[in-house]
UniProtKB/TrEMBL annotation:
The lineage of its organism: Eukaryota, Fungi, Fungi incertae sedis, Mucoromycota, Mortierellomycotina. It comes from the Eukaryota. It holds the Pfam family DLH. SUPFAM superfamilies: alpha/beta-Hydrolases. This is Dienelactone hydrolase domain-containing protein. It comes from Entomortierella chlamydospora. One of its GO terms (molecular function) is hydrolase activity.
Length: 255
């Protein structure tokens, strides 16, 4: 696993946001309750599972998810509690220590994250959702890509802003198209999208680089009191909403 350098050495912000949704218990795993943050209009039949970055339910991440939930006609968004304990801020900037922490607490298979992700899907389904996409921020995109690579995945699209660990190798088994919104800090994502063109998905993959934004601006490293970050964050949320609405429309047209 190779993280973007900025993913290692940039601390979280002290941003504030009043959540528009609410938390509830999603499931009990190993005797511990795991929550899910739910936001968006309950009458929407389009669901999104969102995977936060390594700073968890950070106010800017929640603001970003709340924005996506109201874009393009609205989505029901579920953000499962992937981390029971958050990464200690004391190891920020220490890439070996951060990687070791992620291998212990953030490994897709070891932590059985698919159980939480699929529980989030079923929670959305129980509230009337019939189509599903998945997104992640930073490291969360890597987790989302693995979920979208599962045989029989319910997801119609996958991607996210400032993706970490996103390369030709980590997308080779995806079962749906990608939307990638890198910042100035990530590697070139065009070859990544080119590498899956042969799969001929019903909707073409999408890419836009936010050259004036730093890694993590929609998540724990973002501060939307900054007008430029707010503008770029809203644009990223709306692009994701547009794309997920498009893949849902295509799917619904086939039914």
């Amino acid at each position: 696993m190779i993280l973007v350098n900025a993913c290692c050495n940039t601390p979280p912000t002290d941003a504030q946001w009043q959540p528009k949704g609410q938390e509830k218990v999603l499931l009990v795993a190993n005797g511990e309750e795991r929550k899910v943050y739910r936001t968006g209009p309950k009458d929407s039949k389009r669901g999104i599972v969102a995977i936060y970055d390594i700073f968890g339910y950070h106010p800017t991440s929640i603001q970003f998810f709340d924005r996506i939930a109201t874009s393009n006609g609205g989505f029901q968004v579920a953000v499962p509690e992937i981390f029971k304990e958050l990464m200690p801020l004391s190891i920020t900037g220490d890439m070996p220590a951060m990687l070791a922490w992620l291998r212990e607490h953030g490994d897709y298979k070891k932590s059985n994250m698919i159980e939480l992700i699929m529980a989030a899907v079923e929670d959305l389904r129980a509230d009337g959702c019939t189509t599903f996409s998945i997104l992640g921020q930073c490291w969360g995109t890597y987790i989302a890509l693995q979920a979208a690579s599962e045989d029989g995945t319910p997801f119609l699209a996958v991607g996210g802003p400032h993706p970490s660990v996103t390369n030709i190798e980590t997308v080779k088994n995806v079962k749906c198209p990608l939307i990638l919104l890198p910042s100035k800090d990530e590697a070139d994502m065009i070859p990544v999208l080119e590498s899956i063109k042969h799969k001929n998905f019903p909707v073409e993959s999408f890419h836009k680089r936010f050259t004036n934004m730093h890694h993590g601006w929609t998540g724990g490293r973002g501060d939307w009191t900054d007008p430029e970050q707010l503008k770029a964050g809203v644009e990223a949320a709306d692009l994701l909403g547009q794309y997920f609405a498009k893949v849902a429309e295509v799917s619904e047209g086939k039914q």
